[in-house]
Design a protein that fits this description.
2 copies of one chain form a homodimer.
Chain A lengths: L10 H24 L6 H7 L4 H4 L6 H25 L6 H18 L1 H8 L18 H16 L10 H6 L1 H4 L8 H22 L10 H16 L3
Chain A binds a DNA duplex (30 and 30 nucleotides) through helix 1, helix 2 and helix 3.
Chain lengths: 233, 233
DNA sequence: TCGTGTCAAGAGCACCGCTCACAAACAGGG
DNA sequence: CCCTGTTTGTGAGCGGTGCTCTTGACACGA
């Protein structure tokens, strides 16, 4: 993903890279155990046998460390989704969509705190820096690719007229997407993504706790219905 | 909502109720200004000219204060949604749905921190207490009511076969919903709710920041398409 | 009027993010 | 090889946090 700066030459650089990795690893352990707000630089320092101020040689602030974890979380999710989608035959569009959906949900259930970090409420007074927006779009990109492949093959997502105000507001998005994918298709894809991410967040929040028992089959069913609206299958 | 315990008789009780209200009010101001993690009991105490420990006479912990704010947020959202939906003619089902959608979004945009508190990632090590689950279902209840009214009037939401595993897992939910609303209808309603809540959360998270400009008309369009799947309008 | 129970106060504990002056360890050039 | 400049870890310290506990003042009811 991010270009690793060649090979560390000197022992110092080597040690620095190593310690940086260890700090991030410890931070992720704390994140998974206690959540974002429970992540403390001092605890990480203790883990590594350092004094707290030493960590500031590697990350200028707790927020920088959080940013690193956010980027890694986006990439972890993106990798998991792409891996799941990659093993499905290219022409099996429904299979690819379901692989994306299940891949995302499985990753979320395994890494709830990381999910909360990227799709949950923003950490107080933390503004997502530029570096996080590119990895943040990976799932959407994968999804739109499936949709574009499908349209090229002749599937027909439900199509409705799109008001001109909406079309006008989507210009920046249009340029990133193949022309065969119409605005109506594109919106259907965004809605499918909302359905996917929304469901996972609600499930992690426990919003189905006292109403739905078999969340696996419920999710499967909901995602298949969503696929229908995309004309897949 | 919550039964206020009659009238405070003695001056002591009166003062206690008054101070409790002031604490909550100050806490909500801090929540709106700095977010959930920026909410500190000591700051609230300073606001009210109290010493920090005095606040513990009224709320046994910061979490209890947060719980109070969560309940009030759910009720604030519920009130806003119900108020918006209440002024629309009963038989105008699409109008009622759009009122709910816009009511929820408007409230969220006005109270982003409160929204994050109830639909964002759970605060670290904070487990939603029993008292929060009832007010947490108000939007869903309003939605299902519209759907039930519609089905009674003869609308026909898109209907698909529901696998038996899904049906079996929904028994607890079934008992709360009129029988005319089939499982397929009910799931369509839940999916509409997911679309609504998911969209709002993504918008607040800034996930549309560099792609969609006119979020008002985009939201309107998406919600109308969602209404289509419910057979409204 | 007097006893009881409630109250705010304040000191204190352990934690947090972060800064800074200092000394040790290191890398590279003369 | 040694000298110089940079990098690194240390430890003290500042102001903040949630929370506990003791203490003394006060108001209420009998």
């Amino acid at each position: 993903m991010t270009q690793t700066p060649a090979a560390p030459r000197t022992a110092r650089e080597r040690a620095r890279a190593e310690l940086t990795r260890e700090i991030v690893a410890s931070a992720r352990r704390h994140l998974e155990a206690e959540g974002a707000a429970g992540l403390s630089l001092r605890a990480v320092a203790r883990d590594l046998g350092l004094v707290s101020s030493a960590v500031y040689r590697y990350f200028p602030s707790r927020d920088e460390l959080l940013t690193r974890l956010i980027i890694e979380a986006y990439d972890g999710l993106g990798d998991a989704v792409d891996a799941a989608e990659g093993v499905v035959a290219r022409q099996d569009l429904l299979g690819r969509w379901m692989a994306v959906a299940n891949g995302a949900r499985d990753w979320a259930l395994e890494h709830p705190q990381e999910w909360a970090l990227i799709y949950g409420s923003p950490v107080p007074g933390y503004a997502a820096p530029q570096a996080t927006i590119a990895p943040g779009t990976r799932v959407a990109v994968t999804l739109i690719t499936i949709l574009a492949d499908g349209v090229a093959e002749g599937i027909e997502p439900v199509t409705v007229p799109v008001p001109s105000a909406v079309t006008a507001g989507m210009m920046r998005l249009r340029e990133l997407v193949p022309a065969i994918v119409t605005d109506s298709h594109l919106i259907a894809g965004l809605m499918a993504r909302t359905q996917l991410l929304g469901h996972i967040s609600l499930e992690l929040d426990g919003q189905y706790n006292n109403s739905i028992d078999d969340l696996d089959s419920f999710f499967d069913h909901v995602m298949r219905r969503t696929a229908d609206t995309l004309g897949l299958g």
